[in-house]
Amino acid sequence: MPEHNTGADWINVDFISVTMKNKKKTPTFEETAKAYLSNTQLRRNIGHATHTIREKRETVVGEMPDWEILREAGSQLKKRVMRHLDDYLLQLEASVQEAGGKVHWAGDAEEANRIIADLVKEQQAEEVVKVKSITTDEIGLNQALAGEGIRALETDLAELIVQLAEDEPSHILVPAIHKNRSEIRELFRKKLNQQELSDRPEDLAEAARLYLRKKFLNAKVGISGANFAVADTGTVAVVESEGNGRMCTTLPETLITVMGIEKIIPRWRDFEVFMQLLPRSSTAERMNPYNSFWTGVTEGDGPREFHLVLLDNGRTNVLADEVGRQTLNCIRCSACLNVCPVYERTGGHAYNSVYPGPIGAILTPQLRGLDDEGAASLPYASTLCGACYEVCPVKINIPEVLVHLRGKIVDRKKREGGLKTKTDPEHVGMRWMGRAFTKRSRYERAQKIARLGQKIFVRDGTISNLPGELSGWTAMRDLKPIPKQTFREWWGDRDE
Amino acid sequence: MSSAKDNILGSIRAALREVPAEEQPEDIEVPRDYRKQGEGGVIDIVERFAERVGEYKATVNRIHEEELKDTIAESCRGEGVEALAVPDGFPGEWLPDDLTLLQDKKDAPLSHRELDRSDGVITTCALGIAQTGTLVLDAGAGQGRRVLTLLPDYHLCIIWESQIVELVSEGFRYFEASVEQEGPPLTFISGPSATSDIELSRVEGVHGPRRLEVLIVSR
Ligand code: SF4
Question: Could you tell me which residue ranges the 4Fe-4S ferredoxin-type domain spans (chain A) (predicted)?
Fold first, then answer.
């Protein structure tokens, strides 16, 4: 389910370097996507996954007559939280403390990792069990803990697969969707020392169960993300399917939960909105198998110590952008991934971020900043078809944010580009077009010139190959040629 | 006060400069006219609950109170249970006579290893939600600590017909007062543990109990 985790080493290293202001560049979406586009197995797997979940989602959403009201309620509740986030955070801190928990504040990934590593060391634990959490992927927690001699063990089946394979997750909900059963069998044979193993999913799941059960029973510290935290009561929620979340939040003596500051909901009652929206949008179930809600610590039941780490790591920058702010409403359901025509073809890895798909295309550039070239390429990884907005359970207008970010990127280029940008053919072309559009006579003259000039480039009614500097424009798209006669010309000729 | 806290709160306040100082959170209206009160009659609700729990591949049995003891014994036998974990406060008169009962007591709790070695656990529950086929446990008497329903491989759960509400909203509202006052840990269970992580084919049972059986009891 939604909150998640990985052993995605290079992604994590990259994240750390970015947060440490070491301006290391990630590759652009265009560069990476090319490689994945030619991987037909991956495309088939992803296509199968997204279509299956998409159809199931439609069915379970279809049985809710009040779905649109719930979406609106979810969106407005999140808006309420964002506009008063400082007060809600203070309220959450107080209620968690009152319930016997400790609250820590972390400005960035480094601070969060420091806090967590110190807490683990206090318990003298060398191994911790984790339930998948994208937030901990974002801060590169596993890598940071490894650097301190602490092994963070992923306990979600898919995350375990990804971690054992030293690979990266490719989907928010089903991170190992790019691996098939025989690949997983090979992996378990090698890494779990299971020689006699079939490739039936039941047997593979059983192997993981046995391996992890021992780990759970011995774990002193558990680490989780949070799907929601209630400001008013201090209650934290983890939504999942396998039961590893329950294990990690119940068995160890110490529980450390890391959450982005935007995961707050005002009151307990608001779960009646979000716990209807999330499961149906995410796993396309009426309700996922397990939801755990805990409020601080309870004597004689579960961990004796509970730590909540509140993470900023760029979120306040997102908050500062009035259009981009809605990005923080996201409840990580992954519905937008499953309907995205771009994601369906490239898969999650092409986004070079722990947040793939449409939500990644707006969240990553805002978290990392637009001077990261790779992140700044993501708002272009979209056809602006709007399918993501339609399914989003909290009504994030993803196309609007995409266009807004594109605008910011262009402005930035103009400001910083100097002479190089001014002589850039796209820029020159746009300026020229802009001039042509200011006056009717200019526009008509331009049409005539273009009609003459385009002749040698038109093939079968389209222009697919412009020469020289202009080739950049047609590398990715075809152009319609200017017609032999314009509408106005036809209208003028009509009566004669 | 930690400096990270000051910094974060400072950045938030700077980011929200355009929000008018007099604006209250409640000024942002939240529509609440989604379904909050079920309309189905009791018979329909119980029927739907049974059906939806069953759709999750849990075993569902509808019985009368008088059949409780026999049904429990039969289910345990059918599942090959020899050592059964029993939470504090579970009615002793329902328990089978021919089993090893592992009683979890407040002053003598079962260890994780004992629970891991048991064959199953029997509990009551706090509420059922028909709309989603969900059982809710709030660690009350007869339900026990969270770990009890987690480590054993088989969970036999008993619910009274009168404990079933129709809608998810009703479910959350039912616990509102207790969460705001005592804050007990709550666990929502909808079918047995499951994963679809390998090629999207669903496997029942990864870490939690792989077999869930629900007895819906009428009086
Ligand atoms: S943006 Fe919306 S649809 Fe996409 S993951 Fe977030 S909540 Fe779900």
Answer: 328-396
